[in-house]
Amino acid sequence: MRTWLPLVIVVSLISLGLWFTESPPKQLLGKTPTQQQHNKAPDLVIRGARTRHYSAEGTLAYQVDAERITFFQFDRRDRADLTEPRMIFYQGDDSKWRTESRSGVAINNGQRVVLKGDVTITELPQPGITLRTENIVLKPREEFAETNKVVTITDGANRTTGKGMRADLKQDKVEILSDVESSYEPR
Description:
By secondary structure, the protein is of the alpha+beta class. The chain contains 3 helices and 11 strands.
């Protein structure tokens, strides 16, 4: 009987070890993760991210750089949380517009990007116009931006403020929607 005891102990330890490695968390912790907890876990986190996006013709359309991108994949859509995103839009071989903000959210593979916190859109090359607001929605593939927040546009010493804006970055057209005030200094 003594000869079987070590063998039973070894088999028991191996079985117990396999059970622990194969057991889902609910059996180990006594809890079942909720759907919200599953949704909160990111699928991918990238630090020092740099992406390039090309037009149908194969030319560089825009690039996105961010300190961190946290990507979530859901059943019907995806979302990427951006930390300190910077975007540059190109027209031909030249960079035309640069955006910066504290944070952002890209939805459905970047079809819609919401930038938040000290948003700045700068025309390149400088000197050019600069738009500032707290929150803006971009449609990068269409090179379109809009907001319902207060916007300040500066061009050298000239300054325009208003509430709400639509900007067609491809056509270099900016429209302030209401409460427009301007100050202009002749050169």
